Amino acid sequence: MESEDDQLYIPQVKSKVVPKLKQEFETLDEVASFYNRYAKEGGFSTRSHTSKLGKDNTTVTRKEYVCSKQGDSKVEGEKQKLDVIKYRDHYQDFHSCIWNSSSGDEFDSRWNELIEKSGLSDNKWLKSIYEIRSSWIPAHVNHCFSTGMSSSQRAESQHSFYKDYVSQWNTLVEFMVQFRRGLLHQRNHELREDHINIEEKVKTAMSLDIEDDMFKVYTQKCFYEVQEQLKESFKYKLELLRENETESMFKVIRKNIDTSKSREVIYKKGSDFASCSCRKWESEGLPCRHILCYLIKIQNVDKLPVQYILKRWTKVARQSVVLDSNGVEIKDNKALFVRRTKLLQHATYVIDKAIVSDEASQLLMESLDAFLEKFNRLSNGNLAPVLETETPTIQHVFNEPDEVRAKGCGKRLRN
Fold first, then answer.
1. Which of 136, 265, 292, 332 is a good FRET partner for 37, with 20 to 30 A between their CA atoms?
2. What digits encode the pLDDT tens for the residues 65-111?
3. Are strands 236-243 and 60-67 parallel, antiparallel or unpaired?
4. How far apart are CA 66 and CA 69, in angstroms?
């Protein structure tokens, strides 16, 4: 009888993304992009397998892309990760266990039940990632501030940035040109975002004073996130669990839904700050719906208190004083940068002229040594010897540009 591991898995995907015989592409990047799209639809990942170069050792004549699970694992001879059948059958269960567990204990309980249910208790890869759950499971790491990013998202965003502008076939010069172009596009995108945050008005949904205050404080993207939390906060109710001289604890539950998860909001009277068990504030720096429910229904606030506003998400995040390593304010001295640019351009021009011969190089070195000697006397206060030397005046002559008829201008009329 054929075992489950030996079954042939055929991805159920749209026909337009299925690779076909004699299908042609212009570049290898297009091949990789097409196969990755097919793999994403089919529920598996890919990797580059083998390649073959032509006689000139530069032209690629053969390139293979395969499923990342093809072949045997190099680790202890075991198969890596999960086979596609079990991945397909238990993907939703694992996704819910990882992302919807509200605490570490809840995750551990759900994980163990799922491992027994799926029959994967002997899978070494699952055992290895479970042992390091404290470094990647949201329920275990959401007490750390991460701006809502996953453990690998920073590296993935960098890969995505480089992938749009450079490839492994670029020369060093091409890489530098493309990298500079990518930085310019990125800075231009930041300027557009700043313009949107300052000039464009966002859409308010509830006409509340606290919503108008959020619009004035947050950037557009963050405002829509907090606005969604604000709308959801009216669907919850609070129950006082206990109260003493230092703190109050409330239970926050969804109205009219008995099966919904409850959260706990603890208000510290000494610090005038409320924290929630969902830890959205700790991990993302944004107030959650449960804290907003407490602020609106218990404290009756009209504006979001400043202790719940993280400066990095506000419109004025970049309008602050920049300090150096010694704590001294760094001022933008444009005149200094302009002067430095001119000196660098002039020095580069002189060096390019001097390196063609030993005599010119020696003359340049002697001139630089003489300049350094005069500069040292200048810095020590001996100005007279330096000021006596007259420097020739350079006059720049600018000629009028040649007249050129604009493209598309009308024909001249004859008299």
1. 136
2. 777 666 544 444 344 566 667 777 888 888 889 888 888 888 999 99
3. unpaired
4. 8
